[in-house]
Amino acid sequence: MTMLLATLYQIVQMLLVLALAPLLTGWVRLVKARLVGRRGPSPVQPYRDLLRLLRKEVVLARNASWLFRAVPYLMFTAIWLAAGLVPIFTTQLALAPTADLIALIALLGSARFFLALAGMDIGTSFGGIGSSREMMIAALAEPAMLMVVFSVSILVRTTSLAEIADFMMSGVVGLRISLALALIALIMVAIAENARIPIDNPATHLELTMVHEAMVLEYSGRHLALVEAASMLKMLLYMGLIACIFVPWGMATASAGVGQGIVAALWGMVAFALKLAVGGALLALFETSIAKMRVFRVGEFLGGALLLSLLGAIFLYVSRGV
Amino acid sequence: MIDLGYDAAHMLGAVVLLMSFALLYQRRLFSLLHVFTLQALALSATAAWQAFSHDEPHLYITALLTLVLKAIVIPVVLHRIIVKMNIHRTIEPALGIGLTMVAGVSLVTLSILLVLPVTEDATALTRENLALSLSVVLLGLLMMISRRNAVSQVVGFMSIENGLILAAVGVAGMPLVVEMSVAFSVMVAFIIFGIFLFHIRERFDTLDMQKIESFRGESD
Known about the structure:
Shape of chain A: globular
Structural class of chain A: mainly alpha
Strand content of chain B: under 5%
Number of helices of chain A: 11
Helix content of chain A: 55-70%
Radius of gyration of chain B: 18 Å
Distance between the termini of chain B: 63 Å
Largest interface: A-B, 23 and 29 residues
Number of domains of chain A: 1
Number of domains of chain B: 1
Helix content of chain B: over 70%
Oligomer: heterodimer
């Protein structure tokens, strides 16, 4: 019965992330528009955009290889799987034993690798610039992310996300310097990885400083829809990850009865929706209050994230026990 | 289980340290002042929390002194100086920001390595507080070394003093007289700095220390 329920939860989660991701993007856009005094599109606009793109015909460059056509599917699958692994409303998922932080980073890393290859595949200069910049950002963001993972897992003694969430909810760890530093570092990494404002501007298509958009410039039709959906999923994934590690409260845990478990899971979904709403509003607030950085300052920004997470790991050894 | 007194003290100390890093990261004079104000606020909150949780009323005076002097008077005066001298442009760090940050983290590691063996039998809070405050002091020194503008050097000096107060607040038994005298000597130093800045400016037409060095005949 537990196994069945876990499978059910897993399926619900996979569908839920897919359904919520465009809404989150729409919500962030709406709040941003309101903050700068525009009315803004309705929060369901991203769904309409995706549907329109799916219906459109694919225009391929003559020299596009099979890789270019395969990448949207590969990338979407990898990120969807990764988003399905992060426990967002319950820790009792069927894939929980595989939901390992390092596996998650590997999935995201391979998605990025393929997208960067696809950016260079056609041979236009924009794609090349985008890919090289994306790799520069990745080379700085990934070590920072791994350091965050290390400091969290030294504290919790596991890299399994479900166990981390359980541990955090048990209240054994109080406020910790290391956790605070890790949280700040993880937020900085998430901003860089999702191409949000101080690093990249998600709202532009024609600017010399763009990174993510430059790579996907050659995509059209359903390919573009998949790439866009993947980046929306990625934003949801990072918010879910931050919520799962640092504010897991409200999430359903192991419980005695089936009925009880389902009620807890439903409450977990409500809590997650609230967390997303708050997180999206905070992101929009942050983005409107800051200016975009020059590309060459990205190194400083992410270097800062790396150093903060390093500091967090160091402080684990000073404070009371490890 | 959770010891709230410990946790909160620990967090506030970490915020002070984090603000030191933010000071190293900032390039503009005004944002430097804002971060410095935040650091002073965090410090004063630390002092007030310690006073509350350890029931030591004299620490409230420290908190109040920090709040009034560091978080209000000094930033306002520095702000005025910057506006008056018309130097609210980008400051040029002598070292790159990335390099400074790396140096900062190594200094923090150094101070942890230094404090841990010396304080084996002290409580966790004391050890950590000493490590934090030593790091803040060293980062303040780094700030003074790595900046060329005189105003940011003054901010560096003030943040060194923040580190000292953090140590004084965390370690039980620092007499109030010492704290008062430290606070007032910093105030005097600040006044002298203020007058000095104007004099430097009047004579040499700049606050960039590297340019002033040529007047001493050191660099050609």
